[in-house]
Amino acid sequence: MKKTVFLLLALLAVFSCYDDSALQETLREHDERISTLETLCAQLNTNQTSLQTIIDALDSNDYVTGVAPVMEGNTTIGYTLTFKKGGSVTIYMNNDKPELKIKDGAWYISYDEGKTWEKIGDVTPGTGDAFIADVEVDGQYVTLTLSDGQTVIKVPLVNLPPVMALNQGYKVISFRGKAVLASIDYTVGVYVADSEEMLLHKIRNQQGLSTGYFEADGTFEVIADRSVEGYYDFGSFEEGTTKYCMPFVRVNGVYSYSDMMTFTIDYNGAEVTSEVNEVTVSSAKVSGHISLEYPDDVKAVLRLYESSQGNEIWETMKDIPLTLDSDNNFSVSLSDLRSGVEYVYYILVDFGSELCSDIDNRSCFTFTTEDSYDVESELEVSKAIDLSSSESANCYIISESGLYKFKPVKGNSPESVGNVTSARILWETFGTSIVPERSDLISGVCYKDGYIAFQTADTFKEGNAVIAAKDAFGKILWSWHIWFTDEPQGQDYYNNAGTMMDRNLGATSATPGDVGALGLLYQWGRKDPFLGSSSISDEVVAESTITWPSSVESDSSNGTIAYATAHPTTFITYNSNNYDWYYTGDLSTDNTRWTTSESSKSIYDPCPVGWRVPDGGDNGIWCESSGSSLDNTYDSTNAGMNFSGKFGSASTIWYPGSGCRDYGNGSLSAVGYGGLYWSASPVHYRAYGLLFRSDCDIFPSSFGGRADGSSVRCVRE
Fold first, then answer.
1. Helix/strand/coil for 158
2. Which one-letter DSSP state was computed for residue 146?
3. pTM of the entire structure?
4. What secondary structure does DSSP assign to 216-283, as a single string?
5. Cα separation of 30 and 402, whole Å?
6. Which of 495, 576, 568, 487 is nearest to 527 (CA)?
7. pLDDT digits over 45-60, tens only?
8. Domain for residue 2, yes or no?
9. Are residues 404 and 499 in the same domain?
10. Domain with 314 in it: what CATH number?
């Protein structure tokens, strides 16, 4: 019995001394591993749901308004994204975690680089490895890269401007902020009112002032001033007035709002006086004075833009720093301005901060640069090339840059145009859709020593221009077409019918399908051209340097040679008596405008020296070279006719379907469909011409109404 008791006591002593700490640590690590796996599985399922939410947000044009990191100690393990419409989602990053995969609707994990796998939990519906390898916030997007390293999801990020910097100026409040530009349709703005009730009313009716213009870094400015009345009226700007403001942002049509701001107008800021002197065609000098209530530490900027640009003024805007003297006076020279343009400027002032505020009510100071078309240049006329040395005309061809001159006489006659006191450029064009700048073709013009002289631009460009001679009262006495092109070539027509130009009058090309081949359009018997189309197949008037006057209906006062001469840019529509722009009051008309009684070139002929408008009808050049009618081989692709083999043997005798200007309103018509080419020969109250259309035969002895504006192809004299 004693032995048994002793043995039991000995065994008890042995077991009482056993150390189980290793077993306890193993159990603890196992519990932590299970907890980690459960957490990992939960994160995976959360990522699955979050990714689906993100995809749904992209499909519905939603966007992120906030990004907050999810921390584990000092380590970022994920991010919470807040959407405008879709609430918040959390995504977790794969920070060197074990490998994971989905199989049979469950998550599996591997700790040995994929050799063995252990099931850790079921998958929330969805597919793929939902761990996020990387999250990048670049200011415009939240970019998610999945663990496969290939899948990238970009979500637009829009930060509301929680605080807009407020500056007060003279009768002006300027709100400025910095936006994150993540959307094409992105607008920021502010509602301003004198009461909270009125502010809410404006918000409900979306009566806010906004801007879609941002500087390169996203900085924007919204300006409210007392000059705005009615719909966007901002109320009183008197000192002591309390203002209620609500900044907003609109993205893809969805509005978001910051907290309401209130402030009290506590000073009237500054007043500005300014004047502009020494204005030229390209420069001006601006001076003025700023009266400041708080004059310390002030910087000023002159903001300048072209007033004629409408909604595109920001494209012409530039800020010019001002230097203020001790009395806050300023003076600055403006250069590189455009001729004949109205400019607007106002003053921005920095009261020691980084932001500027408008201090002159945007009521604007304005000035207009001198119009280069109204200024005579100082040219060395004695050194100019005399274009009229052998013969004069109403058109002169220029093929290279230089200084040129011609005598101010009527067409090909020695008769003076009158008492000339000045010369002016009327217009310039490339004959295309490109808008030319003034002086792109002619940089200067003058009347001196009995000549009209002009200087071309330094770089030769093809196109057309018109120069006018004026008297002391500014009346146009005569005008001349200056044709900038390579020298036109002559093409001999069959049966010794004559030698025609290879291109239309005013054309800069003789190539089929080239818009430069269309040329200019003329009313029968007038020497001055009108613009044709800038398209070979559509009625799109070519661009020029002027706004052309409206057409006028022919009557006893304006249906005259004198009126047409004094108004070379005005299209004169027909009268119902003789369907001519030339008015007589009955069916009779003048038949010698483009041809004399001896069938020679008249003083109103628009062709250059050595060329004239051809004869038409049965004895005209088109009939004599080909016969009375021709088969139609209209080139629809290039919109015109190649008369090679019909009129002459040249490989290309290209007549484009230039269309015409309608005799009833002067508008373009039938461009690309056909063409009427004037002759100098009258027929009854009309005039002969070459007619062709894409859908019918060719008529070399057709005719048209003299008020039409049609093409001219000159023949060598």
1. coil
2. E
3. 0.62
4. TTSEEEEEEETT--GGG-----STT-EEEEEEEEEETTEEEE---EEEE-----EEEEEEEES--SS-
5. 95
6. 568
7. 566 566 667 667 666 6
8. no
9. no
10. 2.60.40.10
